[in-house]
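Fold this complex.
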Amino acid sequence: MIYDVCVIGGGAAGIASAKNSYEEGLKIRLIERNNELGGILNQCIHSGFGIHHYIAELTGPEYADRIQNELFDEIEVSLKTSVIKLEKQNNLFCLTLSSEKEGIYTIKSRAVIISTGSYERTRSQIELPGKRLKGIFTAGSAQRYMNQLGYMVGKKVVILGSGDIGLIMARRMTLEGAKVQAVIELMKHSNGLTRNIVSCLEDFDIPLYLSHTITDVIGDTCLKAVEVSKVDEHLKPLEEGKFRIECDTLLLSVGLIPEISLLDDFNLDKDKKTKSVLVNQTYQTSVDGLFVCGNSLQIHDLVDFVSKEAEIAGRSARNYVLNNEKHPRDEQDVLFDEHLSYVVPQQIDFSILKDDFEVSFRVKEKYEEINVFVYQEDKQIKNKRIKFALPSEMEKITIEQGSLSSKASIKIMVEVIK
Amino acid sequence: MTKTMTCVRCPIGCQLMIHDNEITGNRCKRGYEYARQELSCPKRLVTTTIKTTSKVNPRLPVKTDDMIEKKYVFDVILEARKLTVSPPVNIGDILIENLFKTGVNLVSTKKIDE
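Structure:
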């Protein structure tokens, strides 16, 4: 049997893209390695999900439940099943699946959506010095141990990195009786959402050290303390003013990286900043019929935006299958100036440009007010004023299809007002 | 004495200044309301987990079904810790009614069948 669309990963992105790829008569399969759908939402027990998508403030498990209830019965869901290999042969994708119940087997599909989420940067990826002591976790692992398995990971905690998961864990551990000594952030600005800084740190008087890093971990077999140093403007640790903070637990909240290892054999070009593959406005990669969305495409701050992106990827995959959209592409880059760190999509395919589309981006630095202009061949086609643009908050701009007068590339330029 | 706080009602995060009960620095009405609430009776939504007898889901995520006075936040956690539930549990099932006579309930945020 040949599927029309196989969706790999059953989190927020996978559920929304599977739902939106469905149309009567199409065979859709959603593949999830865990024993339930919902992905990372299941361990995010805090509230704040769905403010845009459902105009309601839900917890992670509640959001996961809502989106699952919207899935159509016709979509085949495989739980406890991993995709261990993805190949393309003669216009068909070949997926090698592994499950305890059915062993290892292969299925074929016309289109594939990658919605495999992201993984946490580890200690070795940030070159954290010192011994391999007990008590050092990534923040997301600690979150899973606490919220899903019920283990308290420590009593005296230091958090490195001010990413949202770290901030959420600072509050969670405090509520469960731990003493969170400090959050240490290398950059001079926080990496988390403002509301998390306020409601997770300030509410509990947890100090945030900006422009600081950890230069040593101290202990024999278990963590006893960390050495904290201020950094200069080049992010180099300074010798003077080092100090120690006693702790038995160090949580790392130092960023997420898209999980796209299934695509390794395709040897696709990658975006240096997003660390994922390049896509056009339909979230299709340079391989016909291969789509990527959610955190495996770019790291999102809000699940609401993941759902929205995945809906488009799902519809695009459906259109690809229905229209047998193998066509010569007419792709141009989305260019941007030095104020932005990246844009997604990186390309526009003019040959299938039928709808308005959104471009997501992040600013490199914090600005009080900016004016974002979109140009096509010296002609300004869009302008958006943004107040309080922060690197930690993804921004979006909609490009109306009718505003594009030619098939030339577009460029996004930023004017800093203050 | 001047007090400062950051409004969290939207992503802008206005820096609010409170001096002699006068609130400045807010860009909209919501900032004013936020500061008033924070000064008179701060409230929070509390989420935590409780123990279950299930092997598949050893913890059940729960929340207060409305914001509760900030002074009760840690007490909610302690009350939740005393409970053990057995499946099946549905989303919205009340696990503790009328916490500390505030009218706020502790409810399940996940459906567990086994």
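Chain B has two helices and ten strands.
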